[in-house]
Amino acid sequence: MVLKLYGSPVSTCTGRVVAVIEEIGLEYELVPVDLTTGEHKRPPHIERNPFGQIPALADGDLVLFESRVITRYLVRKYGKGSHLLKEHTPEEAAAVDQWIEVEVQHFNSPISVLVYQHLFLPVFYGGKTDEKVVAAEVEKLGKVLDVYEAKLSKTKFLAGDYYSLADLHHLTYGHYLLTTTPHASLFHSRPHVKAWWEAIASRPASKKVTAALSFTS
Ligand code: GS8
């Protein structure tokens, strides 16, 4: 049965799931949910995600929401041979889990504000970038990336020398930050972060995802 992914091609959280689908090589159908008309807040989408957000995945009768839960589900169900979740030993699984959590707890908040301020706010909502907010979030993200720089000076990827979901989860916001905001130097000025980013972005699966994200150069 073909997976159905309910979301939007320009959404970071939808793209996160598409990245895993492409890494594993699964067939899927992207069913558009139009945020501009509030389709995500009404039935039938609200039944797929009670928080009225995208994405949601339907795999037969199973319906899931939360992009990072969907990615783990897909790896466990269809990507067992991959290293995307190293569940061979509790120690390796913990290394991936730890950096998956770091992305959620430390990276996502400042980078999503920066992308919102520079891209979604002006483009979708006709608002004006708040430079005070931007300055505070640039500082926060810089501190997080200092930690990444130290870790990535020891291993090629976050959890170890292998590409995992811990890295993949950074793809879509990283892409938008680098291509639609004036803050690419946050990544490029840190040599190990820069090399890590290039290793992520140059993967064939990543290229398919980022090609579909609009607003990019
Ligand atoms: C966040 C989903 C989300 O913010 C996840 O799936 O990872 N933790 C969740 N979705 C946004 C689009 S961002 O790609 C969304 O649906 N926004 C509309 C809204 O919240 O009303």
UniProtKB/TrEMBL annotation:
**Which UniProt keywords are present, listed alphabetically?**
Transferase
Q: What is its EC number?
A: 2.5.1.18
Q: Name one Pfam family in it.
A: GST_N
Its catalytic activity? RX + glutathione = an S-substituted glutathione + a halide anion + H(+)
- Keyword Transferase set for record: yes
Keyword ATP-binding annotated: no
What is the name of this protein?
Answer: glutathione transferase
